[in-house]
Amino acid sequence: MPELLQQIKSSPSRIPAHVAIIMDGNGRWASEHDLPRSEGHRAGMKSVREVVEGSIEAGVDVLTLYAFSQENWQRPRSEIAFLMSLLQRYARSEIDDLVENGVEVHVIGDVERMNPPERKAIGMIIEKTRGGANLQLVLAISYGSRAEIIRAARRLAEEVAAGDLEPAEIDETIFARSLYTEPWPDPDLLIRTSGEYRISNFLLWQLAYTELYTTPVLWPDFTRRHLFEAILDYQRRERRFGKVTA
Ligand code: IPE
Ligand code: IPE
Ligand code: MG
């Protein structure tokens, strides 16, 4: 492991500033172990800890984790209830370590759709971790990218209607400023676990030039070593942004 970290650090200008992860495969991990789906979600918490710590070690500035999609509201009520209770447990059990490690937590998504206890847990973790300077941890909860884009369009339309903005002034910079992700640069690297090759309504606007990495590893089996391997793979790539190589 120290070798992997050393390799990453040997190209300091190529460390991804922002890594986003679609944490997938908890249910399949559980069935592989003859366990209920909920145990897969529980086991996935350990991987969250791994990637938070691993991101700090590797020098990543922003880590965005897709924890619950807008479409996930269509899952059985019992599964949703379990995931929400896990969120509260995460907030309570991790808060001290997050503060100690200098992690500042943010949440993006339609939080209004959640129940008061979960919203309270989210509010608490955001407030207590404010000012953390080592890592910005962005949790996408009740998040859907199309809904985020519509919300941005509506906000801009309201500004135009109020006479505060000219339609001709709307450009990519102004549009991006109306998204939840306004404070952070676009992800450099997107990791999806469990061997799926799709975006599942995650950061559609922000991923325009992100490097994609998929691994068959199921989320509960994902460790910081896997994160480091993904970063090393990223460091070997040539990002052209539509231009030709000099
Ligand atoms: C990811 O694991 C966690 C969430 C989407 C909340 P899944 O629950 O989607 O696991 P699989 O894809 O069924 O294996
Ligand atoms: C994407 O995983 C959402 C999260 C990881 C939170 P899903 O398991 O919900 O996505 P699909 O249904 O396989 O596309
Ligand atoms: Mg899944």
UniProtKB/TrEMBL annotation:
Q: What class of enzyme is it?
A: transferase
Name by which UniProt lists this protein: Isoprenyl transferase
Active-site residues per Swiss-Prot or TrEMBL entry:
24, 72 (proton acceptor)
Role of this protein: Catalyzes the condensation of isopentenyl diphosphate (IPP) with allylic pyrophosphates generating different type of terpenoids.
The cross-references to PANTHER family, in alphabetical order and at most eight, read: DEHYDRODOLICHYL DIPHOSPHATE SYNTHASE 2, DEHYDRODOLICHYL DIPHOSPHATE SYNTHASE FAMILY MEMBER
- Enumerate the Pfam families for this protein: Prenyltransf (PF01255)
Keyword annotations for this protein?
Magnesium, Metal-binding, Transferase
What is the free-text note on the cofactor? Binds 2 magnesium ions per subunit.
Q: How does it assemble?
A: Homodimer.
What EC number(s) are associated with this protein in UniProt? 2.5.1.-
Name the cofactor(s): Mg(2+)
Give the UniProt family note: Belongs to the UPP synthase family.
Residues binding substrate:
25-29, 37, 41, 69-71, 73, 75, 192, 198-200
- One cellular component (GO) term of this entry: cytosol
